[in-house]
Amino acid sequence: MKILVTGGAGFIGSHTVDLLLQRGHTVRVLDALEPPVHCDGQAPAYLPPEAEFLRGDVRVRADWERALAGVEAVFHFAAYQDYLPDFSKFFHVNAVGTALLYEIAVAQNLPLKKIIVASSQAAYGEGKYHCARDGAQYPGPRSEAQLQAKDWEPHCPVCGAAMTAALTDETVVSPHNSYAMSKYAQEMLALNLGRRYGLPTVAMRYSIVQGARQSYRNAYSGAMRIFAMQALTGQPLTVYEDGGQLRDFVYVGDVARANLLVFEDARADYQAFNVGGGRAITVLDFARIVAARAGGKAEPQVTGEYRFGDTRHIVSGIAQLRALGWEPQGTLENNVDEYLGWAQGQPDFRNYADEAREHMKQVGTVR
After folding, report:
1. Is 89 in the same domain as 147?
2. What is the pLDDT of residues 130-173, one digit of tens each?
3. Does 248 lie in the same domain as 154?
4. Which value, to the nearest 10 degrees, does the dihedral of the CA atoms of residues 18, 20, 22, 25 take?
5. Inside any domain, residue 105
6. I need a labelling partner for 71 at 20 to 30 A (CA). Which of 37, 63, 220, 307 fits?
7. How many structural domains comprise the chain?
8. Tens digit of each residue's pLDDT (9 = 90 or more) over 21-56
9. Per-residue pLDDT averaged across 107-121, rounded?
10. Do 198 and 190 contact (CB within 8 A), yes or no?
């Protein structure tokens, strides 16, 4: 099958390209090669020469039309993801770009057999909690006053009591920041237009994906790359709030396998799936793992600062994807080792994290 992968020169996209080629598919990549993820306007060396490469922007109709010519399926990974107040850019790239895909597919009656869209765990906001008195709750974002008081834990919206974080399944969505809202808008466009026009579509809500090829130049988010840069250059590992935030991290190879699974299995059509690592860990404990695997020369530093609009706890339940036969195989420790080894082999690797943090302070993201 001839398959288009948007964002295929990036992190998740390139690993999916590798797997598609291994399965015997013909692959075309559409990528804008925008900084800071890419730095020189050239397709990265890890992109296989067997993949046809087109440089283009998913916000541009002509680029979509050129890329879609003759293809039978689309993996749509091109996206804008930063922890910055670029509110309109999130929607221009993530939502409008996706709307253009379906607009062209419908207008030209393209014979697309499947569309896989990259969504995000961020769509859940704070996700699911349990209150001892009031049961399951989905709290809204923490207020600025609460964060300034360093009262980190969400309170029950009914009784105000402390709650326990729970696994978040696919049923309740409550995005809190502009990136999350744009990804959920993208997902709603894709699933609803796909169903209406008979274009089988699946949305993949990825947890925090980690592994080789994750750009260290884009250091505004992504615990692995930020901690790796700091640890390998002997700098303290910056941990926000008190480090007690719960997260789940998933290996990029497992994500690529999940992408191929839902592509090949019609039972997945018109659904959204969590793609998580199956293990909850605090940010502070994860920082300690990275520091230790990097040689132990740096230590985590809990700053008491916070990222405005961040969530306290979010851990995805993966029962729905497991029911299709998928299981995460990567471990945190092996994932960290792989990334550290890959990063140190890159000629321009350095600590971009500290300057990114300073910029986030300047624009009011880190407070």
Report:
1. no
2. 999 999 999 999 999 999 999 999 999 999 999 999 999 999 99
3. no
4. -130
5. yes
6. 37
7. 2
8. 999 999 999 999 987 777 777 889 999 999 999 999
9. 97
10. no
Grouping H, G, I as helix, E, B as strand and the rest as coil, residue 89 is helix
Residues 342, 328, single domain; the answer is yes
User: 133 and 15 share a domain?
Assistant: no
pTM: 0.95
162/193 same-domain check: no
Nearest to 79 by CA among 124, 51, 126, 120: 120
Tokens of 136: 């399951």
- What would the DSSP string read from start to end of 279-335? --EEHHHHHHHHHHHTTS-S-EEE----BTT--S---B--HHHHTTT------HHHH
Which pLDDT score, from 0 to 100, does residue 86 have? 83
Catalytic residue among 83, 102, 124, 179: 179
In order of 11, 138, 163, 176, 306, the CA distances from 154 in angstroms are: 32, 10, 7, 14, 14
Q: Quick one: 322 exposed, middle or buried, by C-beta within 10 A (0-12, 13-18, 19+)?
A: middle
The parent domain of residue 29 ranges over: 2-128+167-362
pLDDT at 296: 83
Whether 197 is catalytic:
no
Instruction: Among 103, 138, 166, give the residue marking a domain's end.
Output: 166
Phi (first) and psi of residue 202, to 5 degrees: -135, 135
Reported as a single tens digit per residue, the pLDDT across 239-256 is 999 999 999 999 999 999
Residues with Cβ within 8 Å of residue 292, at least 6 apart in sequence:
none
Percent of the residues in the chain that have a pLDDT greater than 90, as a whole number: 84
